[in-house]
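cache lookup: miss for this entity combination. No prior model stored, computing from scratch. Input as submitted by user K.M.:
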Amino acid sequence: MLNGIFSVEFVNSILRATTPILFATMASAVAAKAGICNMALEGMMLLSALFGVLFSAMGGGIFGTASGLSQFASFGFGFLLTVLVGGLIGLIFAFCILHMKADEILAAIALNLIASGGTVMILMAVAGEKGASSTIASVAAPKVVIPLIGSIPVLGEILSGQNLLTWLSILAVIVMHVFLYKTPMGLKIRAVGENKNAAESVGISARKIQYIALVISGMLASMGGFYLSGGYMNMFTREMAAGRGYIALAASSMGADTPVGGFLVSILFGIAQAVANLMQLTTIPMQLIQLIPYLTTLIGLGIYSYARMKRRKKLLSSE
Amino acid sequence: MKKLAALLLAGAMAFSLAACGGGDSKSGSDEGNKAASGTEDGGGAEDGAKDQESGKPYKAAFLVNGNLGDKSFYDSANEGLTRLKEDLGADVFDFKVEEMGGDPADEANWEPTLLDYCDTGEYDVIIIGTWQMYDALNTAYEMYPDQKFIFFDEPFDFEAAGNPDNIFNMMFKQNEVSYLVGAGAALMTTSEEIEGIDPSNSIIGFLGGMDGVLINDFLVGYIQGAKDVNPDIQVAVAYVGDYIDSAKGKDLSLAQFQNGADVSFNVAGNAGLGLIEAASESKKYAFGVDSDQAALLPDYAASIPSSALKNIGNALYLAIQEDMEGTLKYGTMQSYGFAEGGVGLVLDSHYEEVLPESIRTKLAELQKSIENGDIVVKSAYEMTTEEVAEVVNSVKIQ
């Protein structure tokens, strides 16, 4: 068990478990900053997991998969198209709740249900399968091998050979942080989320800002979805999002809907999952082990609300 | 604007309903059925409303609480019924398949659909299965005492129900076929003839869906088989916690392989596909379950020596013929094991390629011994939770 925890493979398994949640957490954060609870993440991820397989297979058909370069082109084609469609799903979702004034929770439930049945229907139509896309020759995201660093023991082994999308998810945290806190658009998004009326009173179109935030949210969620079927696994399997969209919602709100906070909580969730996986190899009863991810969430939430309470008290006393 | 929104929502609903496999339960209306099969995949079986003029065939209704196309359970049942229809002719035996859908949203439709089918009185027998249909059956058998049911893959508590005589309970000895898988895995992990296997340790793996009696029935047989051929065997047991999270299944399996397991066995539905990917990536081996997974997953076939099958189709084929002769014992439970052809390993040329002859001979011997009763495989259905835990702990990695 201890050997397991201090191995490179353990770090890798944390990163594997963290990556999809991290993308979705960023997706949730940007929507939440604009004042929308994006419960449709689950469905967006599931749809993108399927589209990722279909589009990258399409890319494989166009560019071939013979050489490393053509494989990368196939992946790039599939990934970009998936992210575009992810943005489109975000746009449709935004249209329903902003333009049509549908309740955001109900619209999200509808989207999640459509994703759950629709992915199976599309899979059936395209591949004649209902459970998994094993017959579709999809192209997964490549692993990034860093030439010199890779030969350094432990650290090099961790840094080199990670999935490209794992790096991209970490990059997404930085980009989202800069975007939300250092750009005019980020300021507008936060202003709308903080107080819609106040933002509109200074001439910001709240609806436009929320549209933009949801499109970005959809794009980020689709990256997480792509990773599920083209990185974590190499095929789409039915319902494979398995609640990660909802976990990301929790992670984002635990991280106070900030990219950096969400990043830390996602890592925490990833660690909890990886530890739980390893502990199944021990004689500790399985029921206790399955508690770990949830227990971590509970403790994390407790610490978070305690810190917030303290801060509020401090603010009140200083007034 | 509002109209458009309403239209959109209606469209979304129709889409999701159709996608769920159409909970359309109007068995009488031909049009309704046609519409339903138009929007979904057409199903596997052409049902025979057309043969009604030519005499009165024995009619069965198979209500699927999921969809055909699972390439496993339901397809096997459908295959058995189709074979029976072909062998006997449509004027002697006919059947209808109703796909009720397997999503949570469809569950509410299962019981009404079952009752609708009972209500028609057209069917000599209604076939349903799995624990998820238990409650629906509990309602139906009382309301329709003249309707016969075949209920498969979940034990029916006859005593608690007051010994109803209109239910035939069909069970499968998954523990027997798991015994063979366990023996195969244990023989493989110390074999020097198989590529990629480290013979120095005796560790094998097991990936289950949820920690329940059905999965543990597989597990108990698996462990018994492994121990019988190698008393020092260690088994890494992991449960995904559901049947859908293939990525988590992969992570759990990678951890097993990294800790020395060479061969594993997936009994976790779609989540088990994660094990197969993990085996393929680690250049190790994983036994399949419920359908011929080597044939279904050609890219991963090299890592799948064989698959454990429940031949529901075979069992239905036998049971319905017995029913036609009036010898099927309603009011009892019958288990179909190796001896009845109810379970088995896939023994094709692929199996012969992956496994060396010495192991295959040994497995064939073991199967014979189970068939003639020399080996009795323990069943989790007859054990307490503590006893199962004891079995699992006896082979845990130290």
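stored under new cache key. The two ends of chain A are 51 Å apart (CA to CA).
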